[in-house]
Structures are given as structure tokens and as C-alpha cells.
Write a structure and sequence with these properties.
- The complex is a heterodimer of chains A (262) and B (355).
- With 262 residues, chain A is mostly helical.
- Chain A is 82% helix and 0% strand.
- Chain B has 355 residues and is α/β, with parallel strands linked by helices.
- Helices cover 39% and strands 25% of the residues of chain B.
- In chain B, the strands form five sheets. Chain B has a five-stranded mixed β-sheet.
- The chains are: A mainly alpha (262), B alpha/beta (355).
């Protein structure tokens, strides 16, 4: 009984709304009548008892009253449980959302670091190319200066230029190989590994977030009136006849489902 | 019972949900022991291609929503003339598609009842009185995917059971595909207690369409529009109001008075019903014929036609010397409510044996 009163009190408090005296005045209310929460609870209790008294007698009334109170408490508890579950799901969702935001920020930073690194590498490469071009031009100029003193035949010039070109190309091939290797240097691959890892983590967290969001919207359904299988009531006017009809319906269905392999 | 959501099946220890379902050609109605009552047009639509799937964001649509978006959907009406389409040729692709549509429709009807996952679901489905064994088996197969235990019962019987009218009653159940007449005399109705014919809601639609084709010169309309008009104005006998409808003629809405056409189309139901009543009354125990004539229940969507009860009474007076027709209060849910009551009254051991 005490538990019911406490629960009723909590329910009334939960359903009540707060307002200020100023607000009431603004709405034109000059005076208010105050009804204490204990009085409200007593009135509800009294109303239930009077209603039961007028409709039921003796043991039946007590049984119905107890069953009603139990059911009321069960419903309130079920509501509290649902509220708690909802709160937990919301917390879970918020945490997952924060995690996703953090991961997104980290991913952005890592991508920026990679871009900077690649841009820096490209600049260094350009500078190196400029230096190499100048060196090639220098070597060609030196060759022609040397040839001018020797008065060579066209065939000799062709051979010496070809020799120079092959030498330059071999050197460039070596440099290109080194540049390609540089792309795979330790830092770049580390960054790429980190990004891959973050991407995976982000995908997992987003999936979890989606699952949580879906869970939150799951309709719990509406409870049936019945906790147990019912069957015909003994005081049904057509008890015997209905019992036979039920048996006939079952029998026809049993045959049907047996014949068709259920 | 399969768990379509995936994952482990929840422990069913919360309670038992009874469902009564009226699986009709036009509508499927469901009544549940959690107080939910819902009805959905028996229409299922699947997106035609990837584009429509992306647009609709759903794999399957039902009822009114499917009808509204039918241009993007492959449409199925899994029931025809009161039974599952193609259920006699079970291996054909059409039959398989249709069975899947029926399964999805039954699943949707059950979802509409908002069952809890931790409750046992026991369902009774009203099947047409003269459905074949194959057809009944197909309905059971479709339902088993969604419930713990299922039983079928004759539709008109469930209507009478729901009202506790178990003896000396004649039930007229006017659906879209069939009209079923059933004589109740305290036991399960047998073949000789039942009459079924295909002059029903769909036949009225076709008749009205033909009459409108002749009367409304140049008007463009579909069978769905005809059905909507019928549901709004249908009547027999004296009209309470003129049936003025707007139909497009060369793209311009034009008003037509189709009162006479509606009356004529709806009246095609009366004659076969009275013939059926005549047959069932005349072959009944003569001592109880008078009582039977005065306890005629009119149910099903067709009973919403204004003045139909009076028109049948009038025809009964001419051919059977009199009779009393009582229209049930909730024609759309009469079958489902009765099936729910049967589910409730069925003993536990019977449900267990069919699990």
C-alpha cells in the first residue's frame, strides 16, 4: 500500500507542470486553490475503493483491487524501465557521435599532414630537376668546346653525343628509381597506414551509431491483454456447443496441416 | 516462427497475443487482443528497378501507399475471387511471386497489430468458405512465417461466431471477389450449408465501369476511380443524394450524374443473394425455416451499400414470403473480430499441437 502511495505521488509529480505566480497573473488568475499531493492520492485511492465497492462484493473486490494495484505498479515500473533504456540508448548514441566527431577530426589532420608532405616532396623534386637540367646543359657545352679544338668528322660528333646522352639517361634512370623509392619512404607509408586504420575505425563507429539510432526507433509493440493462453470461459452461455466447435475447427486444421506437411 | 529481423529469437515469456484476420480480396483486416484494429488494401508493390528502390527507400509497399505509387512499382493483388492467385500451380514463377506477396501482406497485417517480440502470436484467419485444400495450405504457409501457431476458419462462420449467433442464422458475407452465404445451425457448417458465387464487389465495379463508358461520353477513368466512386456513393433502392462525379474529358474536369448507373450496378448483387438464400432456406428443417429467414446477417465490405438490406428484404418478401436482414455494425472488421474471438476461445493444447 505504502509503495502504491509513493508511486502515485511520484506519478502525480511527474505529470504536474511548473509555472510562476507572475505567469498565472498574466493569464488573469488572481487566486488559486491549493490541493495537497497527499489529498490527491487519498482521493484517487478513495475513488478506486468506492467504484469497486459499488460494483463488486467481498473477496472479489479485494482480489480485483490487489490485481489492479499490482498491474498499475507493474506498468509504472515497466515505464520507468523503458525510460531508463531510452536514456541509456541516448547516452550510447551521444558517446558514439562524439567518437565519430573525434575520428573525423583526426582523419582530417592526418590527411592534411600527408598533403603537406607530398607537396613538399614535389617542390624538392622540381628543384632537383632544375639542377640536373643545368648539369646536362653544362656537359653538352663542354663536349662541344672540346670537339671544336679537335675538328672531328660528323660521325665522331654523333658518337660522342650519343655517348653523352646514354650516360645522362643512365644517370636519370638511377635518379628516377630513387625518386620512386622515396615515395614509399617510411613516413609516407606510416601516414597511409594510420589513415587506413582511422578509416576502418570510422566505418565501425558509424555502423555502431547507425545500429544505436535504429535501436532507439524500434517499436516495442503493444502488450496483449493476456499473460496466459485463455480458452473458453466456463460460464459462457454456449460453453458446450462452442467447445465442440473449437474441437471441430482444430481437427480440420490439424488434418490440413498434417496433409500438407505443416 | 522465423525472425525476419535477424538475430536471436527473443524468449516469448511476456504473454500471448491473439490475432483475428480477415484476408480479403480487396482489404485485409486484423483485430488483436492488444486492442489494435487495422485494415489495409490487399495490394503489394515492389520497386520496379534500382532507381525506384532508391526513390522509395523501401523494398515493399502495401495498401494505399502502394496504389498511390503504383507507377514505380510491380504490383500484386495476391488474392483473386477470395483465394490466393495461382495457388493450384504452385511451381510456376507467377505462383511463387504471388505467394511471396501474400506472405508479405500477411506479415504487414501482423506488423500493423503491433505485436511485442516476446509474446506468443496465435492467429485465426478467415478463409473463403469454399477455398480448396491447396489454397488453404498456401494461406497457412504464408502465415506460418510470421506467427507461432495459425488456424483457418470459414469467413461467414467467424462473422456469426463473433456475434454469438450460433444457431438458425444465415450469414451473407459480400467481399470483393466472392459473396458467401452460410447457414449456421449450432455445428460447423458443411458443404450443403454454404453457397458461394462471384457476383461481388469487383463485379459491381466492372458493371459500373461498363455503364459509365456508355453514359459518360469522352470521360477518362480507371477501374480504381470507379472503385472510389462506388465506395463513396454506392446504393440500391431510392437515392438519398444524386451521385455527381467529376471526370476528366480532354483534360478538363467535367461533371456527370451517374446516380442511375450506380443503382443499376449495385443492384446486380440482389438477385443472386436472394437465390442463394432461397436455396439455403428451402433445404432447411421446415420447422426452423421461419426463424432462419428472420435471422439473416449482412456482413462484408459490400454490406456498406446503402439500402442493400432493405432491397434484400423486399426481394425475400416476394420470393420467400418475408424475412429480416440485419446489417452488422462493423462490416470491415466483422470477420476479423469473429476470428479473434475464436482464437481467444481455442484451448491451449490445440494451439500447442499446431505449433
Amino acid at each position: 500500500m505504502g509503495e502504491l502511495r509513493d508511486t502515485l505521488k511520484a506519478a502525480v509529480r511527474q505529470m504536474a507542470f511548473r509555472t510562476s505566480l507572475d505567469n498565472l497573473k498574466k493569464q488573469g488568475v488572481q487566486q488559486v486553490n491549493v490541493l495537497g499531493i497527499d489529498r490527491i492520492i487519498a482521493l484517487v485511492d478513495e475513488a478506486v475503493h468506492r467504484s469497486l465497492k459499488s460494483r463488486l462484493v467481498g473477496i472479489e473486490r479485494e482480489a480485483v483491487a490487489t490485481a489492479t494495484k499490482d498491474e498499475f505498479l507493474r506498468l509504472l515500473k515497466s515505464n520507468e524501465h523503458l525510460q531508463k533504456q531510452k536514456g541509456e540508448l541516448e547516452q550510447l548514441k551521444d558517446r558514439a557521435q562524439d567518437e565519430v566527431d573525434q575520428l573525423r577530426r583526426e582523419l582530417g589532420q592526418q590527411q592534411q599532414a600527408l598533403r603537406t608532405r607530398l607537396e613538399h616532396g614535389a617542390l624538392q623534386q622540381q628543384q632537383r630537376y632544375d639542377g640536373e637540367n643545368a648539369a646536362i646543359a653544362q656537359r653538352v657545352a663542354e663536349l662541344f668546346t672540346a670537339l671544336a679544338g679537335e675538328q672531328p668528322t660528323l660521325l665522331t660528333v654523333q658518337e660522342r653525343v650519343l655517348e653523352l646522352l646514354l650516360d645522362v639517361v643512365a644517370g636519370e634512370r638511377k635518379t628516377a628509381d630513387a625518386a620512386r623509392a622515396a615515395l614509399n619512404d617510411h613516413e609516407v607509408s606510416l601516414l597511409q597506414r594510420r589513415i587506413d586504420k582511422l578509416n576502418d575505425a570510422l566505418a565501425v563507429t558509424e555502423r555502431r551509431l547507425k545500429d544505436v539510432a535504429a535501436l532507439k526507433n524500434v517499436d516495442q509493440g503493444i502488450s496483449s491483454l493476456y499473460r496466459q493462453v485463455q480458452g473458453l470461459s466456463d460460464d459462457d452461455t454456449y460453453f458446450r456447443r462452442k467447445q465442440e466447435l473449437m474441437a471441430e475447427i482444430f481437427s480440420a486444421n490439424y488434418e490440413l496441416q498434417k496433409r500438407t506437411g505443416k | 516462427m522465423s525472425d525476419k529481423q535477424g538475430g536471436a529469437t527473443p524468449k516469448k515469456d511476456h504473454g500471448v497475443l491473439y490475432l483475428g484476420m480477415d484476408l480479403g480480396t480487396s482489404r485485409t483486416s486484423v483485430s488483436a487482443s492488444n486492442g489494435v484494429r487495422e485494415s489495409v488494401y490487399s495490394v503489394v508493390g515492389y520497386p520496379k528497378d534500382v532507381v525506384s528502390m532508391k526513390l522509395l527507400k523501401r523494398e515493399v509497399l502495401f495498401g494505399k501507399e502502394a496504389i498511390d505509387k503504383r507507377l514505380s512499382l510491380k504490383m500484386f493483388k495476391p488474392l483473386e475471387k477470395g483465394v490466393l492467385k495461382h495457388s493450384t500451380e504452385a511451381t510456376s514463377p507467377d505462383a511463387k511471386d504471388n505467394l511471396k506477396a501474400a506472405q508479405d501482406l500477411i506479415g504487414e497485417a501482423i506488423r500493423l497489430a503491433k505485436p511485442r517480440k516476446d509474446e506468443l502470436i496465435y492467429c485465426v484467419i478467415g478463409a473463403p468458405a469454399e477455398a480448396s485444400i491447396k489454397n488453404k495450405a498456401a494461406i497457412v504457409e504464408a502465415a506460418r512465417a510470421h506467427v507461432d501457431s495459425v488456424m483457418l476458419c470459414s469467413e461467414p462462420f467467424s462473422v456469426a461466431y463473433g456475434l454469438d449467433w450460433l444457431e438458425d442464422v444465415l450469414v451473407i458475407d459480400i467481399g470483393a471477389g466472392t459473396t458467401d452465404l452460410c447457414r449456421m445451425h449450432g455445428t460447423m457448417p458443411e458443404d450443403q450449408d454454404q453457397v458461394m458465387f462471384h457476383v461481388a464487389g469487383d463485379a459491381v465495379d466492372l458493371e459500373l465501369q461498363a455503364l459509365m463508358d456508355k453514359h459518360c461520353k469522352g470521360a477518362q477513368f480507371t477501374i480504381q476511380m470507379v472503385k472510389d466512386i462506388k465506395e463513396r456513393y454506392a446504393f440500391v433502392g431510392e437515392p438519398a443524394e444524386r451521385a455527381l462525379v467529376e471526370l476528366p474529358v480532354n483534360g478538363k474536369p467535367t461533371q456527370f450524374d451517374i446516380t442511375d448507373q450506380l443503382q443499376k450496378a449495385c443492384s446486380i448483387l440482389v438477385d443472386p443473394i436472394v437465390q442463394g438464400l432461397h436455396k439455403l432456406v428451402a433445404t432447411f428443417d421446415p420447422e426452423f425455416q421461419m426463424k432462419l429467414k428472420n435471422r439473416v446477417l449482412l456482413a462484408g465490405g459490400g454490406s456498406l451499400i446503402k439500402g442493400l438490406d432493405t432491397a434484400i428484404e423486399k426481394a425475400m418478401k416476394e420470393r420467400l414470403g418475408g424475412g429480416k436482414v440485419i446489417k452488422i455494425e462493423e462490416p470491415i472488421y466483422g470477420g476479423a473480430n469473429g476470428a479473434l474471438k475464436i482464437a481467444h476461445d481455442m484451448p491451449e493444447e490445440f494451439w500447442e499441437k499446431l505449433k
